[in-house]
Amino acid sequence: MNALAKKYGNKVDILAFPCNQFGHQTNEDNSEFLNTLKYVRPGNDFALAPSITVFEKTDVNGADAHPLFKWLKAAMMIPSDEMVDTKGNGVADPDALILPRGKFGGSTVVLWTPVARSDIAWNFEKFLVGPDGKPVKRYSRYFDTNLIAADIDKLL
What we know:
Order of helices and strands: HEHEHEEH
Subcellular location: Secreted
CATH class: Alpha Beta
InterPro entries: Glutathione_peroxidase (IPR000889), GPX_CS (IPR029760), Thioredoxin-like_sf (IPR036249)
Low-confidence stretches: none
Helix content: 10-25%
Mean pLDDT: 88
Keywords: Oxidoreductase, Peroxidase, Secreted, Signal
Largest sheet: 2 strands, parallel
Structural class: alpha+beta
Family: Belongs to the glutathione peroxidase family.
Shape: globular
CATH topology: Glutaredoxin
Distance between the termini: 18 Å
Protein name: Glutathione peroxidase 1
Number of strands: 4
Number of domains: 1
CATH superfamily: Glutaredoxin
């Protein structure tokens, strides 16, 4: 996301929404989140580009999902990536909703209900919204973020 922020500057707004619904990977509170990025994941004094707006932690799935994500998922039910399995999961990348968690005994337990086909599958799923405010594309967690530039260029 930093590369896109640097490339497009103030032509594009990049919004980030931390979420703890995916394997409890974001356990810290809102005041600690940026420090976790800087010192833990990915670490090495990592910092988000100043033009990226980071919101407070929010739910993106289930009954308590933020209305923004309910709206985005209703507009774009599944990611629009090619229907290929690039990670060897046994299903195409956009179709990989809930996968076994190898380091957790193969568990497939999710942290929200109800589970819906349109749910965001994991961290780093992305939505591209056009200048008119309408969703244009949804990308799976596996989609190379840098490749979103081609779609942004079409909109600009």
